[in-house]
Amino acid sequence: MGMGWPAGGIIEPQPPAVQIGLDSGLMAGPPVEEVRRTLADLTGLFSDPAALARLPKDRLVYRVQSWSPVSEGTEGGLVYGVTVIEPGDVGGEYHMTKGHFHARREAAEFYWCYHGQGLLLMMDERRRCRVERMVPGSLHYIPGGTAHRTVNVGDTPLSFGACWPTTAGHDYAAIAQRGFSVRVFRTGDGPRVAEAG
Ligand code: S6P
Ligand code: ZN
To answer: pTM for the full model?
Structure first.
């Protein structure tokens, strides 16, 4: 029957391969994969290494569930994922993702927020940054050539869906070396986005 196409006759509707919890954004189903990022995986990400050293290395910062219906690099394919960032900070700097450019610079991406309060940092190759607020229901277009990082500025998990081309690839090196040109800190008046140089 190849590709799940029926041979003919009466068509029996099939259950979906994956379900999404519309409140949490979490995915369930056989094809779902998950990666977890703890503080141990995020060395060099936060600006205060002394604060990092005082915290348990196994603290979960975020996890990414994803479904790649076709193998990475397949032209024309799409990947779907959800990221859940736990609330918290390291020396006052909110929990955030590593952030990346897509290896294929022209590859864009959609994000949308299921739950929580966040900031989406978008930075072009000249290190110019834009920041959008993420709230439940917000939809964000990340154009090609734009590094992206998300920051949980609330006190509950931040959960957002994402859809990107299978050919996009991920380039973490530029961000690992120089970071973003802004950082986001907790203050008594809420989050402050500060220039990082
Ligand atoms: C993939 C997409 C997201 C991130 C995820 C974690 O293109 O942008 O699924 O992978 O939010 O961020 P990062 O920077 O650690 O991959
Ligand atoms: Zn991406």
So the answer is: 0.96
